[in-house]
Amino acid sequence: KKAYYFDSIDSTQNQALKMSEESVNDGTIIIAAKQTGGKGRLGRKWISPKGGIWFSIILQPKFDISITTLFPIASSLALSYAIEKTFKISPELKWPNDLTIKGKKVAGMLVDVSLESNKIESLVLGVGINFDVDTKQIEKTLKGTSNFYGVASLNEQKMKVKPKVLIQTFLVELEKIYELLNSKQTKNIIAEWTKRSSTIGKKVELNTVEGKIKGDAIKIDDDGALIVSEKNKISKIIAGDIIHLS
Ligand code: BTN
User: Fold this and answer.
1) Of ligand 1's atoms, which has the minimum distance to the CA of residue 108?
2) What whole-number distance in Å separates Cα of residue 228 and Cα of residue 107?
3) What's the CATH number of domain 3-196, 3.20.20.70, 3.90.550.10, 3.30.230.80, 3.30.930.10?
4) Residue nearest ligand 1's atom 11 by CA
5) What are the backbone angles phi and psi of residue 86, rounded to the nearest 5°?
6) What are phi and psi of 194, to 5 degrees?
7) Hey, where are the domains in the chain?
8) 222 CA to centre of ligand 1 in angstroms
9) Which of 28, 41, 48, 95 to mutate to test the pocket of ligand 1 (most atoms within 8 A of CB)?
10) Which residues sit opposite 132 in a β-bridge?
11) What is the pLDDT along the chain (246 residues), one digit of tens a residue?
């Protein structure tokens, strides 16, 4: 498997997408020390200074499209395992794929899927980890933007973990989870995600094209969709952003 390293790049995600169009290579990883045009979910910016861990992985999964929505959730669980092993703390998981520490965002995932006649041709998983970054500085930049709720950095844990060790541990965990997804063994993934979730059991709010939904986050479905119950309605949320109200 190949790894490409950049001191500085616009976005490892863009680079990986470009490379996946040229010749797809399952497991290729693109890492950068800093990104000048880091991308977050839903068209947002991702502030990526030196000190963070920014990478994208090209995958050619065997699982079918129905499992694609579970993939980012499963990947955030894999990162959670890796942080538990290395930093000895358990981050909370905020639906769909944020990792938080004491309610502040420490990592996020971005997934781009390219389809070919309804089959997954390739998938690019982008992972951003605030490893050793100036949280105050990032918070200043992000204040007032949508879905901003505070930034955490792993170095606040005062543990001597090398970035390389965290990345390697994550890749091992990701591979295990990837195999589970490929063989459709999703029960355990959902159970373990739920155990760590800060979303399930909370009152949540989100905006959809059909309007605002406000209710209780009950559980995630087999495909990773969030089930929210309102007074007289149950909604299944496939994508988007939620706000925790309680
Ligand atoms: C989010 O929570 O909004 C997702 C953040 C994903 C950031 C990572 S950093 C590496 C990769 N390259 C990018 O431009 N974005 C992802």
Assistant:
1) 2
2) 24
3) 3.30.930.10
4) 126
5) -90, -45
6) -60, -40
7) 3-196, 203-244
8) 25
9) 48
10) none
11) 899 999 999 999 999 999 998 876 789 999 999 999 999 998 899 999 999 999 999 999 888 887 888 999 999 999 999 999 999 999 999 999 999 999 999 999 999 998 888 888 899 999 999 999 999 999 999 988 888 889 999 999 999 999 999 999 999 999 999 999 988 899 999 999 999 999 999 999 998 777 889 999 999 999 999 999 998 899 999 888 899 998
Complex ipTM over 0.90: yes
Bridge partners of 108?
128
CATH class of the 203-244 domain in this structure = mainly beta
Q: How far is the CA of 3 from the centre of ligand 1 (A)?
A: 18
Residue 105: both structure tokens together: 């965002």
Residue 39 is encoded by which pair of tokens?
Answer: 């991308």
